[in-house]
Design goal:
Layout lengths: L4 E4 L1 H4 L8 H13 L2 E4 L1 H29 L4 H8 L4
Parallel strand pairs: 1-2
Length: 86
């Protein structure tokens, strides 16, 4: 049985949902070394999924705008020819 339990809130994972940053990776490392259990509630997980979807949608919108704005440069045709994509 573990002596310590960590319950994570959305605010901790908001900008790093995949535990890639310094704080998150260190937290996982210490939890493994010290046999600490880390928990996420279903609500936190749902908030993370919604936030991640929001970020993806925003980035897709930015990409669509870039493609649209650059269409007058014939950018898409040049790229497809460059990479031999049809």
């Amino acid at each position: 049985m573990n002596d310590f339990y960590i319950f994570l809130d959305t605010s901790i994972l908001y900008k790093d949902p995949f535990f890639k940053g310094n704080f998150s990776s260190k937290l996982l490392e210490v939890a493994r070394e010290k046999n600490v259990d880390i928990y996420l509630s279903r609500i936190v997980l749902d908030e993370l999924v919604r936030n991640y979807e929001k970020i993806i949608n925003e980035e897709n919108s930015k990409l669509s705008k870039i493609i649209s704005d650059s269409s007058h440069y014939n950018f898409v045709n040049k790229i497809t020819k460059l990479f031999d994509v049809e």
